[in-house]
Each structure stands twice: as structure tokens, then as C-alpha cells.
Design brief:
This protein has helices at 2-12, 58-62, 88-98, 104-115; strands spanning 15-17, 25-27, 33-35, 41-43, 48-49, 74-75. The protein has 144 residues and is α+β, with helices and mostly antiparallel strands. The protein has one domain (2-55, 71-129). The protein has a two-stranded antiparallel ribbon. Strands 2-3 form a two-stranded antiparallel ribbon. Strands 5-6 form a two-stranded parallel sheet. The radius of gyration is 17 Å and the shape is globular. The model has no long low-confidence stretch (mean pLDDT 83).
Length: 144
């Protein structure tokens, strides 16, 4: 759960943690997940989030490499599943809680909000520890 929250909180701060395998994250003594691979950080609004294009021919589909061009800022959210390559239990839990991170729309909508000056409220503590703001609170939150 906290791994996904960490990614969302970084993204809300206009930070994209380029290399997201679990090994690049750690847990503090206070139980918070942190990102360690600082040389891979990019400004979220500089990233070009894309869908992986469908192969046009059978030859393209069977190629060992990519059949489409990839720019230096191109990111394909549907590839994020690969970060759990050997850990099916973690992938299943992540997909139950944070599947929107695999969605192109999640990333492009967040980029638009950031460019429009919208600031997402990010809390460093769980909802149970926060003051109750009432049922009518309109805050967008990336932490539970």
C-alpha cells in the first residue's frame, strides 16, 4: 500500500521516480516508504506518457525489440507491472489498491492539474491519525 502512496505523493509534487522497482524504495524506522534512486528522478510535467502502440504487422509483433520509436522522455505506464516481475503477491496487492498508476489517464490528468496550478494535498500520515474535516470535505488526497 505505502509503495503506491509514495509514488502518488512524489507525482503530486511534480516528481516522477523514473526507475520504480521495489528495490529502489525503502522503509524508514517510522514505517514510511521512501525512494532512493535519485539519479532517475524527472519533473513529472516534462515526461511524455504514452500508450504502447499496437503492432501493425505480425513481423513487428514478433520482433525482439520495440517496433516503435521511443523518445528520452517517453513513459509507458502499462509497463509498470514489470516492476513486480518475480513478486506476484506484491503485484496483486498493488493492483487492488493502486491500479490507476498503470493508466495513461492518471498521469496525463495529474500533469494537467499541476500545469494549471492545482496543488494536491499530501499527508504524511494515515487517515485514522488526521483530524476529521467532516463528510463534505472536498480535498483531493493521495494518502490513506
Amino acid at each position: 500500500e505505502e509503495y503506491g502512496n509514495c509514488i502518488k505523493q512524489l507525482a503530486a509534487a511534480n516528481i516522477f521516480p523514473g526507475d520504480m522497482p521495489l528495490k529502489n524504495f525503502g522503509v524508514t524506522r517510522h514505517g514510511r516508504v521512501v525512494f532512493y534512486d535519485y539519479d532517475e528522478i524527472a519533473t513529472l510535467t516534462d515526461c511524455n506518457f504514452r500508450h504502447i502502440p499496437k503492432a501493425r504487422t505480425e513481423e513487428e509483433e514478433m520482433q525482439s525489440g520495440t517496433w516503435y520509436t521511443v523518445g528520452p522522455d517517453d513513459i509507458f505506464p502499462e509497463e509498470f507491472r514489470l516492476f513486480f516481475s518475480g513478486n506476484t503477491k506484491a503485484r496483486k496487492m498493488f493492483e487492488e489498491i493502486h491500479s490507476e498508476l498503470y493508466s495513461l489517464d492518471f498521469w496525463t490528468e495529474l500533469q494537467d492539474k499541476i500545469r494549471d496550478g492545482y496543488v494536491v494535498d499530501v499527508f504524511p500520515y494515515r487517515r485514522a491519525k488526521r483530524f476529521d474535516r467532516g463528510k463534505n470535505s472536498q480535498l483531493a488526497v493521495f494518502a490513506d
